[in-house]
C-alpha cells in the first residue's frame, strides 16, 4: 500500500521538446482554443532580441516564399540554358552531317568551336579501331592507343572527360600543330562500348576549362560523332 502512495506522490516528469510536439500533433486545435495566449507568446530572435510567435511565423513564411522564388528562377535559367544547348547541338549536328568529306567535317567542327570563343576543336582516332590508310586522307587524325594510354590514365582515370590544363608533351601528342593552348576539354569517343578516339576542345585561356564544370555538351557531341565518321572512315 505504501508503494502505491509513493508512486502517486512522485513529482511529474518535466516536459521535453518531443512531448510538447507530440501533444500539439494530437491536439491540432490547441492554437485555436488558446488564440489569445498564442498572440502574447514571445520567441527569442538572434537579431531583434524577441518577436511574437505570429511575427516569427510570418517571417518564416516570407523566407519560404523567397526560397521558392529563387528555386523557380534557377529552374527557368536552367530551362533556358538547356534550350540554348539543344539549339547549338542541333545546328552543329546538321552542319557536320552535310560535310562532303572528313576534312570539311573537321573544319566545320573547328569553326563551330571558334564561334563559341574557343581556340578550336578536333578529334584523334585510335589506329586500331579505324581504317586510316594514307589513300583515305585521314591518317593525320590517327593516334596510337598505347601512346595515349599513359595520358588517359593520368588525366581521365575512370572518367570519360578531362577538363583542365595539359603539359607540353601531352599537348604535342594530341595537338601537334596547336599554339598557345591554355586549357582543354577531352572526351573519349565511344562506339558500341569501345573507346575509339578522343574529342578535343581547346581554349587559349588557362582557366576556361576546369574540373567540376558540366560535360553535357561533350557527352552529346562525343555520342553522335563516331557514327557520323563512318560516312568516310571504316571501322576495324
UniProtKB/TrEMBL annotation:
Family annotation (InterPro entries): DUF484, GAF-like_dom_sf
Domain of life: Bacteria
Signal sequence region: none
Organism: Rosenbergiella australiborealis
Protein name as annotated: DUF484 domain-containing protein
Pfam families named among the record's database cross-references: DUF484
Coiled coil: 51-78
Keyword Coiled coil: yes
Amino acid at each position: 500500500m505504501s508503494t502505491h502512495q509513493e508512486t502517486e506522490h512522485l513529482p511529474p516528469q518535466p516536459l521535453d521538446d518531443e512531448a510538447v510536439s507530440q501533444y500539439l500533433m494530437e491536439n491540432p486545435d490547441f492554437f485555436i482554443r488558446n488564440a489569445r495566449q498564442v498572440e502574447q507568446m514571445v520567441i527569442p530572435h538572434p537579431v531583434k532580441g524577441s518577436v511574437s510567435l505570429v511575427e516569427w511565423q510570418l517571417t518564416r513564411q516570407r523566407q519560404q516564399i523567397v526560397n521558392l522564388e529563387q528555386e523557380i528562377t534557377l529552374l527557368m535559367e536552367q530551362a533556358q540554358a538547356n534550350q540554348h544547348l539543344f539549339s547549338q547541338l542541333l545546328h552543329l549536328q546538321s552542319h557536320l552531317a552535310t560535310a562532303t568529306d572528313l576534312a570539311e567535317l573537321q573544319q566545320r567542327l573547328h569553326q563551330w568551336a571558334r564561334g563559341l570563343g574557343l581556340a578550336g576543336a578536333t578529334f584523334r582516332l585510335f589506329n586500331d579501331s579505324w581504317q586510316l590508310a594514307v589513300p583515305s586522307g585521314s591518317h593525320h587524325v590517327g593516334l596510337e592507343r598505347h601512346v595515349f594510354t599513359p595520358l588517359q590514365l593520368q588525366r581521365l582515370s575512370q572518367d570519360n572527360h578531362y577538363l583542365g590544363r595539359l603539359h607540353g608533351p601531352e599537348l604535342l601528342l594530341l595537338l601537334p600543330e596547336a599554339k598557345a593552348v591554355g586549357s582543354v576539354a577531352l572526351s573519349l569517343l565511344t562506339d558500341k562500348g569501345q573507346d575509339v578516339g578522343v574529342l578535343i576542345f581547346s581554349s587559349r585561356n588557362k582557366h576556361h576549362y576546369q574540373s567540376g564544370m558540366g560535360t553535357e555538351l561533350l557527352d552529346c557531341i562525343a555520342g553522335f560523332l563516331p557514327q557520323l565518321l563512318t560516312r568516310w572512315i571504316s571501322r576495324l
